[in-house]
Amino acid sequence: MISRRKQQLRVMAVASGGGHWVQLLRLTPAFTGYELVFVTANELYRAQVPDARFHRVNDASRWNRIGLIRMAIRLCWIIAKEMPDVVISTGAAPGYFALLFARLIGSRTIWLDSIANVDRMSLSGRKVRRFADLWLTQWPHLARDTGPHFVGAVL
């Protein structure tokens, strides 16, 4: 893929807090040499990525529809401002909206479902399937020929 900036690729890494964030951080060595932008719901995580641009969104779930709308609007603005070449997410709701909006502007998208989802893909993971160029699970027994695919686990 050719970058729109004719510079290094801009990779946006998006996750909610807790385990989603931990798994996302474990992926960052794969993006050495790329311009990194992080998006999460916890301001305290900024200190963990001091050399990257950082955006915070509100935390919300499917039980808080107003919060989800606010999150979606904020993520739409962040995607439009940053214009990432690639968006990767380990979940949950922030990742879903990030992949949706990134796909609309032509970014490549990667979803890596949380390792906590041992029995089936997460709700966000199932819904994001149509927006993900690469749809991954961390459990081999959840992999299918049509996706999600299994290439290993990050924990």
Describe the SSE topology:
Elements: E1 10-15, H1 19-27, E2 35-40, E3 53-56, H2 65-82, E4 86-91, H3 93-104, E5 108-112, H4 123-128, E6 134-137, E7 149-150
Parallel strand pairs: 1-2, 1-4, 2-3, 4-5, 5-6, 6-7
Helix pairs in contact: 2-3
Question: How does this structure look, described?
Answer:
This protein has 155 residues and is α/β, with parallel strands linked by helices. The protein has a single domain (10-150), classed as Glycogen Phosphorylase B (Rossmann fold), CATH 3.40.50.2000. It has 4 helices and 7 strands. The chain has a 7-stranded parallel β-sheet. It is globular, with a radius of gyration of 14 Å. The model has no long low-confidence stretch (mean pLDDT 93).
Strand residues, percent: 15-25%
Q: What is the total number of structural domains?
A: 1
* CATH-scheme architecture: 3-Layer(aba) Sandwich
The CATH C-level name is Alpha Beta
Distance between the termini: 29 Å
Q: What is the assigned CATH homologous superfamily? A: Glycogen Phosphorylase B
Helical amount among residues, as a percent range? Answer: 25-40%
Examine the coordinates and then state which fold CATH places here, giving the name of the CATH topology.
Rossmann fold
- Order of the strands making up the biggest sheet: 3-2-1-4-5-6-7
Mean pLDDT: 93
Report the strand count.
7
- List the helices and strands in order: EHEEHEHEHEE
Look at the helices and sheets and give the structural class: alpha/beta
Shape: globular
> Please, how many helices?
4
Please describe the biggest sheet, giving its number of strands, its sense, and whether it closes into a barrel: 7 strands, parallel
Low-confidence stretches: none
Radius of gyration: 14 Å
